[in-house]
Amino acid sequence: MAKYEFIDSQATEPGAPAIWRMCQWLSVSRSGFYHWRCRPVLATAARRKTLTERIRHYFAASDGTDGYRRIHADLAAEGTECSAELVRQIMRQEQLVPCQPRPFRVTTVSDAEAVASIPDLVERDFTADRPGAKFIGDITYIHTWQRPTNENTNGLLRQYFPKGTDLSRWSAEDLEAVALALNNRPRKSLDWKTPAEVFQEQLHSLQQPGVATTG
To answer: Phi first, then psi: what are they for 41, rounded to 5°?
Structure first.
């Protein structure tokens, strides 16, 4: 069967050899190939194909971040019965690898003893009678949404440009086409709207009636 599947996959490729010749090269009968091609689709194979399409749908809707557990939950919510292990196997077979944002971790630890040993040269007095008399500094870490967004965007771009791709080989039109595809892809986080639709809605909400806008 593997030989028949290979012949069938190559038959539609441009410049592919004739089917009878590929059958001859792989030592299989041509009649056996056509019999295999016309065989009825098994119910199990048909269900697995439908399930694969739904898994791909939810994986794309999550921008490639959902793993098999979340996708299994989405399938269960829509009424599709399957095991989480089957979802994991199909995702591995289809090479659907989720890109998860890195969890936030605190990398700085307060040290009371070290702080106490640092002299307070300004004695909490930040006023000055002339410029350049006192210099102070402060280090404050604020966790924002930007890091996970960047990680997610990188995962989406890797679907089109693998790591290490020389972007100079791509024209501005090619890059614009990728941006257009990403901005017109429905997102689960946007209630199945596309980023382009949400952006247009935001622009429309900012336009007040009777106020002229310039393009």
So the answer is: -75, 125
